[in-house]
Amino acid sequence: MLNVGVIGCGGMGRDHIKRITERTQGAKVVAVADMVEALAQKGQAFAGESCKIYSDGKDLINDPNVEAVFIVSPGFAHKESLLEAIKVGKRIFCEKPLCTTAADCLEVIDAEIKSGKHLIQLGFMRRYDKGYRQVKAAIQSGEYGEPLMVHCTHRNPVVPDSYTTRMAVDDTAIHEIDVIHWLVNDDFVSAQVLFPRKTKYAADHLYDPQIMLLRTKNGICVDDEVFVNCKFGYDINCEVVCEDGAIKMPQPLYPSYRKGAQVSTTIDTDCFVRFHDAYDEEVQDWVNEAARGVVSGPNAWDGYLATCTADALVKAQETGEIVPIVFKERPDFYK
Ligand code: ISE
After folding, report:
1. Residues contacting ligand 1 via CB (< 6 Å)
2. Which domains does the chain have, with CATH numbers?
3. pLDDT band at residue 290 under the 50/70/90 scheme
């Protein structure tokens, strides 16, 4: 049994606590931490009475009963917890982003390399989604030729007022940044952002929708429509157009209803439902691989690549220009 401590008991943190407690085989939550006591208590309520509560993540990491750490605090707070957990050699599952700046990501990567152990898995759950996996298998089969273009949509029905223009990159498009790089196995080289006419439903300070354009080393062009006040649902689409055919990601299976001379079907309304199984799979995989001492999911280097790409997209938002994306050479440790 892997004894897990969870830092951050907001919506995502509690979702993970519930998952580990109710559905993950071979792990249990033995401690939770949150600066906000009421949130920590809510987290503990899922895990049970024996689960310890901490206000400081550092104390949780150093609890000898905690063997592995889940970091689900806000992105800006990840670095401190990551470095502390690496220092004491504990396995880590970290929600995206790894860190909010490329420099911080490199500091964490350096610490992980120096520790000599692969400790960090990142929460890019889409790599565990059945639909994306089917698309990847089709690309890898070679049947459809080389990928040329990828068309994506990332639509949310609504976002809170606190959601900013920048978050369309850091919080939302970050999923396509990782999953498309994994799907086509190619690194991004440039980024651009277009601002179409703004929806009347967006807050004054928010540009919505946005079109993010990315180009890879091999010249694949990716367009990602990020539209977070689309109203009609949590709608994720991906089509990879190749030389000999096109591969469209399947949608979740729901019945189609016929009524009043109309055919309709369900669209999910949030990521917890849409990616429910993918979240379960990623956490189960992390637990299974922890027992073998390896990380087979997205790692710290993937987190660094995603943060560099996101930085370029944010610069593209601000300048309106096509911004080059530059990465360091991949260390042997991550090859
Ligand atoms: C949120 O943080 C997510 O990760 C969701 O998948 C994304 O759709 C949403 O826009 C983000 O705010």
Report:
1. 156, 171-172, 175, 228, 271
2. 2-126+277-305 (3.40.50.720), 133-266 (3.30.360.10)
3. confident
